Write the structure tokens for this entry.
Amino acid sequence: MNPSSRENDLPSRAAWPWLLFIPALATGLVCLLLLALGMSPLAIGRALGSGSLGSWLKFSHVLSVWSPLLLCSCGLLFTFRAGLWNIGIEGQVIVGAIGCTAMLRLWDGLLPPSVLLPLALAAGGLAGGLWGILAGELRNRGGVNEIFGGLGLNFVAQGLIIWLIFGPWKRAGIASMSGTDLLSPRFWLTTPPGWRVAPVALAVAVLALAVTILLLDRTRFGLHLRAVGANPGAARLFGIRPDRVSMRAMLLAGMLAGLAGSLQVTAVYHRLIPAISSGYGYLGLLVVMLANYRSPAVPLIALFFACLVTGSIQLPITLQIDSSLAGVIQGAFVLSALLVHGLRRGKD
Amino acid sequence: MEISLADLLAGVTATAAPLLLAALGETVTEKAGVINLSLDGTILLGAMTGFAVAATSGSLAAGFLAAAATGLAVAAVLSLIGTWLGQSQVAVGFTLTLLCRDLAYFLGSPHARQPGPQLLASPLPLLSRIPLLGPALFNQSLLVYLSIAAIPATWFFLYRTRHGLVLRAVGENPAACWARGIRPRLVQTTATLAGGALVGLAGAGYSLALKPGWGRPQGCEGIGWIALALVIFGGWHPLRVALGAYLFGFLQISTILLQDLFPALPTQVFQVAPFPIMIFTLILIHAGRNARGRKQRFLLRLFRGRPPAALGTTYRQD
Amino acid sequence: MIELADIHKRFGRVEALAGVSMRIRAGSVHGIVGENGAGKSTLMKILTGFISRSSGTIRYNGRPVQLRTPRDAARLGIGMLYQEPLDFPHLTVLDNFMIAAPEHDPGRLRQQLVRLADRFGFDLAPDSAVERLTVGERQQLELLRLIHRRCKVLILDEPTTGISQRQQEILFAALRALRDEGRAILLVSHKLAEVRSLCDRVTVLRGGRAVADQERPLDEDLLLRAMFGSLPRRQRAVRARDRGRPILAMDHVVSAEGRSGLHDVTLSIAEKEVVGLAGLDGSGQAVFLRIAGGLLRPDSGSVRFPGCETTAGAGGGDRQTVFLPADRLREGLIAGLSIREHLLLAGDAPFFLAPSTGRARAEKTIADYNIIGRPSTPADGLSGGNQQRLLLSLVPEPARLILLENPTRGLDVRSGAWMWRFLHQRMRDDGAIVFASPDLEEIMTQATRIMVFFNGRIILDAPTDQTEIRTVSRAITGRVPEDAGLPAA
């Protein structure tokens, strides 16, 4: 269960050809599938490309997916580094969105929007962080594997958001799956005309990436994370407390995920919907796995995945193809990566 | 609303049937030391192929077979990359979960909301006339009978046969098995494939019997995670795992009943409620098991169980 | 019965076996002796099919055979008792007996198990869990299983490690009976006494070669010379310095951890002492060291460090108590982290780290401690001796109490000697060293005080220069000398 946490296994020059097999294999598999179904991989590829990179408007849409996805992926880098499988990230996004919305609803009118909005973003981060801590506590104190504690908390978060949307925070009139009432535009993160992404959201994500890389690779904390992830028993001999370090990793991951949830509310949907997380937590797990648990490739892979997500939106209309193809391609890439890494390991 | 005890029992056994198959399949897999995390996606993909094949061929049997084959195929991928190529079983399983889910929606989209066959009840003669038990247990579909029969069958296989003993031994200590001339990875692969086939079958249990039809969502999303939790918190013992499956069936049935008592709460809440309740019941039991002190002795005895010693690790020989 | 001719085995650049030839006869006990690293275990693994030879031929009853997998070996009737029992602790005795049996008939197999156990005087309940058995009993079970599988060649790897005197006697009686039935028995051991009492023929391995071959009666001096090149010189024991103030005090410490737990240990260790812990593996030394090192909390009783600010010895850069575990890579070092990073973890690293932070210090440490590696070499890329030196370099300057578990395990003689020189030099006037070792010689030469553990108790506690080796070895098997300096307060 322990993902690699080495400093020294950066792909050496000799390993590069191996890495090229990953996209080749994944693309090949997906093309075969499409051909077998009588679809044209070329047409689909073109549609995905133009749907994501065709114009600034479309690309800015990609960036609006990229920002929360990158936040989740950054959070997961911390937990993977500490040897944890933070599958509860999905719930942490949801609870972050709830925390942010709660703040906006409760203090609306008490504070000026320019003060309340940052506070609400922070509240979302805090809520997500607490949710992460909860999974960590279940693991450290209750002896519940973080995968199942996290999963349970995901279900709870899902139940919570549905209860809020259909109960206390339901829309004026009739409650529905389409979510709560829209927030007052005062609480929307500004999106310039001709853009689909709020510059603030983008800035938050980029900043988070920088801080993550700094913390992981350039600080004592990052070193402690790797020590705990690789060998918690030996880390204890160095005076490190593995429980505490892994708890900090859970807190950071939860906070970044919660921030992603806040962005989903204030920059994308402008309300709370049942699927507010858009599955970015789980997708983030795939991103980090494809990046082989290390930071350098994470922003690029997240961008690629965001392109697939955005590009597939138009598929049902233009080519009558279900948009879940994006998920199939993403899964194929990660599976290919696992296969190629496995084959390479066998060769050594 | 009045409901008889027999109806309740019948509802619980029927609701739990596919879950039971999936959880027992995963029990067999994990007893051999392999964790197959792909259950949630596999069930969905099994549900899709089962429905698609049954609807196009008109044969229910073909549908169930196709679903089992799907589960087998997914398990084969896990075996290849996890057991044979030494990659983390959790990573492979999780990737497969998401991949299979999206693959099911993608491949299944032409079949969404199409009519299809449904497995009907086939009452057993005589037995179905027994009061209370008759309607509860013997007026059901073949799938339910199969799921009930699978409980003692799994137990018997694991604890009373030679192959079951070898399978458990591999899950405990593959190196010792290798020293005795057993090929651990071959045993693990077989267990993974067999378990996977049962999981696939469970998928068809939803799309062809319990929640007939295909769509997005199908209605069985999340079940795979429950099955996984059941195995782990049921202490890897088929009988306790089965008990857990029935508990979940009961939860699902009772939330439907409770809905009438709390009209103020939205229906959607009742649909998702069993999931967190189940997981946290299991977690509480588990935490009680871990806690020290005399009070928990009883729980300890009731839920004794420990993971196969080699669960989730990769054995690199043979 | 088995003939080995010119067996070679290479692991990468290392040649573990460099042309071993020997002949093992049916109806005899054949001893294989040698130092650590002489190639004993490699040879055994080849015979059992765990690894395959690089070159050479193996004949079985005159026919050349391939031994690619344990399966091949089992088919030929070659079975092995491993030093660490290779069985299934969570399953029952009967289950263990039945796994991979040719037929699955629990009723019959149970009878056969009971009958076999009776024949050899073993006391094994078929339904108890194997994890409840002692190591000796687990060995007995494996032995019965191999006999039941009609094993014709039995290989035993250090079979008397960790078992009681009585169990050893039963085992040897059983082995003699098996030999008389015409089986071939291969005994791997480093204990000359048991080799002398049991073996009809002995082969000595050194540096991957068979350097001597002797039939009964055995000449012990000759064997020793063959094993070590020259007889080990009995070194003068380190002279006891004046004891200083107490540094570690245990008061009625009890623990249920480990194979035998720890029963009511009360003692005090003073400055300037070097204490050697002797005893069979799992007699309580490991638990004692971990409690003293603050890694385990005792179930009851108190542990104090008089004169230290830290009480539990649990952590911080200014720790005064350090523990160096036996399994260095698994318990002491962190695979994947480099030498530089280990030093950063151990020292007072600043919060922000540049790739150059600590490199100079790492280079200095590498030079000071004779480590073969670079600052960026990961711990798992170092050899055993270098890992031990890295571990030693991580001991913080102010550490007063150094606890070591089997410190020379896996080290060659030179590395071991270097380590002891270093430890004696480094020892502070207000410090003490406590180490556990399976090697009495090491304890008698390096320690000022010896404590013998038996079944979780300290049954002998005396200065080394006033103790006979015979007294110590008797104590290890559980016989307490009448005038032994038992806890003298």
Notes: Chain B has one domain: 5-302. Residues 292-303 of chain B have pLDDT under 50 and may be disordered.
